[in-house]
Design a protein that fits this description.
The chain contains twelve helices and 18 strands. With about 425 residues, it is of the alpha+beta class. Helix 4 crosses helix 6. The structure holds aspartyl-adenosine-5'-monophosphate (AMO).
């Protein structure tokens, strides 16, 4: 497609184009003035290319524009491609015209070239500039491949993409982390998860998925929690928790393959290509009881019934020596009301967490599809079935057995990029302290 502002991207400029006139547009990445020769590194979404200005050869008005240019200014350049052994990538541009499209102020609040280190708060305060750094460009290209691969595999497996409301009437994942919303004088909440809607949709479409925001008023300030995150959710009728674990394995395996194929350069930019996750298939499954026994055998202080904290999972991951594993059959008391109890032991559920080394990436379960059992579980958790009537009533008219999972996209991105904090892999993260930018 022909556009007004450029004929080529930086990456397209190769020595073979020697002598051609091209038009480029982008940002002033670096300026270097050596007197007789002046260099400008121009950056666009594909990388950088060098412009060379030579005293006595380059027209004087172009040299004057160069002198006034500041870093991160936006320019359009018409110039001649020159093959040159001395230039980066063996090619440079001799400008014939430079048009300044937007002159940047000085000084810059963060360095885009990556030479000057800034802490994460400074970077997030200046996020739009920070996102121009090549590491961030790599992270969000990997995210793009990830989203594409997830959609591709789920569609191949017969799921359709749906979008559910984010302003809702009641809690699904426990009440404490709800964000209240004043909804025309009534009480409403931001959705913690699409849980109830995806279950209802499974009774209409059998297999659905959603990639959308989830909101949780997270008090805890950790590298793994945000108050708004993107949740990848599936729900499938006529599947149980074992089936949807298989779906998850297929999806994650496909994502890993796709990134290896399409984002090798990005993994190199992030110096992560050697540490990129490897999946042993089928993924190991251990029960919650086995996990507790293993931890106790290794003198880790934990009792049956307790949740597995991050330190407990760290220990477990070390002992198991697996990158990916499932912990299955969790105690009923640790799971939400909609989780199906096991047929032979109602103190345990048909549920799982999907863990990478020690980080929970996803969780899921078989769901209860019988109204009376659902009501019993609501009451058992201290909830009033009356408040869930808008959900429960649909169980009167043909709710199939179903199962599903929810996966935190930002946590998945940590293991796909090597980043250590979910704030690094979210464009504009939201946490207790941060509402802007
Ligand atoms: P759960 O509450 O375990 O399950 O959430 C699913 C996954 O979402 C991610 N996650 C978070 N990511 C970032 N910040 C947070 N505050 C945060 N909270 C959760 C985690 C987690 O594994 N409805 C069920 C899923 C299901 O059974 O289908 C649910 O929401 O990666």
């Amino acid at each position: 497609m022909k556009i007004t502002y450029k004929t080529h991207f930086a990456r397209d400029i190769k020595a073979e184009l020697n002598g051609y006139v091209v038009i480029l547009a982008g940002w002033v990445h670096i300026k270097r003035d050596l007197g007789g020769k002046k260099f400008l590194i121009l950056r666009d979404k594909t990388g950088t290319v060098q412009l060379i200005l030579t005293k006595g050869k380059t027209p004087q008005h172009i040299i004057e524009i160069f002198n006034k240019l500041t870093r991160e200014s936006v320019i359009k350049v018409k110039g001649v491609v020159k093959a040159s052994a001395k230039a980066p990538r063996g090619v440079e541009i001799e400008p014939l015209e430079i048009e300044v499209l937007s002159l940047a102020k000085t000084p810059l609040p963060v360095d885009v070239t990556g030479k000057v280190h800034a802490d994460i708060d400074t970077r997030l305060n200046n996020r739009v500039l920070d996102l121009r750094r090549k590491e961030n460009q790599a992270i969000f290209r990997i995210q793009d491949t990830t989203l594409k691969a997830i959609r591709e595999k789920l569609r191949e497996l017969g799921f359709i993409e749906v979008l559910t409301p984010k302003i809702i009437a009641s809690a699904t994942e426990g009440g404490a982390q709800l964000f209240p919303v004043l909804y025309f004088g009534r009480e409403a909440f931001l959705a913690q998860s699409p849980q109830l809607y995806k279950e209802l949709l499974a009774s209409a479409f059998e297999r659905v998925f959603e990639i959308g925001p989830a909101f949780r008023a997270e008090e805890s300030d950790t590298p793994y929690h945000l108050s708004e995150f993107i949740s990848v959710d599936i729900e499938a009728a006529f599947m149980n928790y074992l089936d949807v674990m298989n779906v998850l394995e297929e999806v994650i395996y496909h994502v890993l393959m796709k990134i290896r194929k399409e984002n090798m350069e990005d993994l190199k930019i992030l110096k992560y290509e050697e540490h990129f996750p490897k999946m042993r298939r089928p993924i190991k499954k251990i029960t919650y009881n086995e996990a507790i026994n293993i931890l106790q055998e290794h003198k880790y202080p934990i009792e049956k019934g307790e949740d597995l904290s991050t330190p407990a999972l760290r220990k477990l991951g070390e002992i198991l020596d697996e990158e990916f594993y499932f912990v299955i059959d969790w105690p009923t008391s640790t799971r939400p009301f909609y989780t199906m109890p096991k047929r032979d032991n109602e103190e345990r559920t048909e549920s799982f967490d999907f863990v990478y080394k020690w980080l929970e990436i996803a969780s899921g379960s078989t769901r209860i599809h019988e109204r009376s059992l659902l009501e019993k579980q609501l009451i058992r958790q201290g909830l009033d079935p009356k408040n869930f009537e808008y959900f429960l009533k649909w169980f009167n008219w043909g709710m199939p057995p179903h199962a599903g999972w929810g996966l935190g996209l930002s946590r998945l991105m940590l293991i796909l990029t090597g980043a250590k904090n979910v704030r690094e892999v979210v464009l504009f993260p939201r946490d207790k302290k941060r509402l802007i930018p």
